[in-house]
Design goal:
By secondary structure, the chain is of the alpha+beta class. It has 2 domains: 172 residues, no CATH class; 143 residues, no CATH class. 36% of the residues lie in helices and 19% in strands. Strands 1-2-3-4-5-7-6 form a 7-stranded mixed beta barrel. A 3-stranded antiparallel sheet has the order 8-9-10. Helix 1 packs across helix 8, helix 7 crosses helix 8 and helix 8 packs antiparallel against helix 10. It starts with a helix and ends in an 8-residue tail after the last helix.
Length: 344
């Protein structure tokens, strides 16, 4: 009885701490201060964007957006395709948007010099649903770490000008803030172009990301190679991993997702722990943090029911519940996490 009370008190204190500390990580810019979808209209040639491989080449465009008062406004932007896999495999490429300060001042985009726009792979309901589920992953990430990318849901009218007869599409999409803004909130900087050895990463921060990727069943990432991970260097020379790009995860379960030949799994729905071995204190601390966050995580999933439907939400909660079952069971926790951690 005493042990159970001790566990419950620990979880309560962890939850109180998380509610304070993790809330500090959210952007205070107007664009990311609402959970409501913003309406955007954007025109470009998908063919031209995908064909241009140089990261320095952008294409000028006009981005129209509906203001909070219901009127339409617009700003000048520059666009380029980003990513490798989706650029090559999808009809619509993910997009990087550059905005000049003089153009964004006084608009909802003020303070954002660069943004990522994540769009469906193709024009189909399944693709729109996958975008919503990837956005959900970003929102879940907010619950388990104080350092994350802020996002904003988008109802996008995209006009593809890549043919003689331009065609418009109504798509679900979302915006992601620039990594430099994430670092600025922590008075830090992004460690660009550096290979960070596992031992250099701040231990608890690394375990939080390791658990998160395991929770959503994502194996398409690497802190060392900074693949779908940005690493932030703090004034104290701590290195903090920040996760992004979750389309290959088991939760999203995109039809184009693949598994690595290096992993002994046949489906992206199979979880495999890819974190490095850390101290028992760090592993247990993060384990307790996640257990304390379970109800909030499920609440976030429930919030996506209007877009995903009750059946999809129930399936996602069941899938996440299997992760929490592992954390609650010492034997499973040892077998699927502690004994699977990497040493090299």
């Amino acid at each position: 009885m005493k042990n159970q009370l001790k566990i419950n008190l620990t979880l309560f204190l962890v939850l109180i701490f998380q509610g304070f500390a993790f809330a500090q990580g959210k952007s205070d810019l107007p664009l990311f201060n609402s959970e409501d979808a913003i309406e955007l209209r954007l025109s470009f040639s998908s063919k031209e964007l995908k064909k241009e491989k140089a990261d320095s080449v952008y294409f000028p465009s006009i981005m129209h957006f509906r203001t909070s008062g219901g009127e339409w406004d617009s700003i000048k932007v520059d666009l380029r395709a980003r990513g490798n896999f989706r650029r090559n495999q999808c009809f619509f490429p993910p997009i990087r948007i550059k905005v000049k300060k003089k153009d964004s001042n006084g608009t909802i985009f003020e303070g954002n010099k660069a943004l990522k726009l994540v769009v469906p792979c193709k024009n189909a309901k399944a693709d729109n649903d996958q975008i919503v589920k990837e956005l959900l992953c970003y929102k879940l990430n907010e619950q388990v770490t104080p350092h994350f990318f802020s996002t904003r849901s988008v109802n996008l009218t995209l006009t593809d000008e890549g043919s003689k007869n331009p065609k418009s599409y109504e798509l679900k999409a979302f915006l992601i803030e620039d990594d430099d803004l994430v670092a600025e909130r922590a008075d830090s900087k992004i460690a660009k172009g550096k290979q960070i050895l596992p031992g250099r990463l701040q231990e608890v921060a690394a375990v939080r990301i390791d658990f998160f990727e395991f929770m959503i069943a994502n194996t398409d990432w690497s802190s060392v190679a900074q693949h779908n991970i940005k690493v932030m260097q703090t004034p104290n020379n701590d290195f903090i991993p920040i996760a992004y790009d979750f389309d290959m995860s088991g939760i999203v379960h995109a039809y184009y997702s693949t598994t690595s030949e290096l992993l002994n799994i046949s489906s992206v729905r199979e979880r495999v722990y890819r974190g490095f071995c850390r101290s028992d204190a760090a592993m247990q601390q993060v384990r307790e943090e996640y257990l304390a966050s379970e109800s909030k995580i499920m609440e976030v999933v429930d919030g996506f029911e209007p877009e995903l439907g009750s059946k999809e939400v129930a399936d996602i909660k069941k899938y996440l519940g299997e992760f929490f079952d592992i954390l609650k069971n010492d034997k499973q926790f040892n077998e699927q996490i502690l004994s699977k951690c990497r040493t090299s």
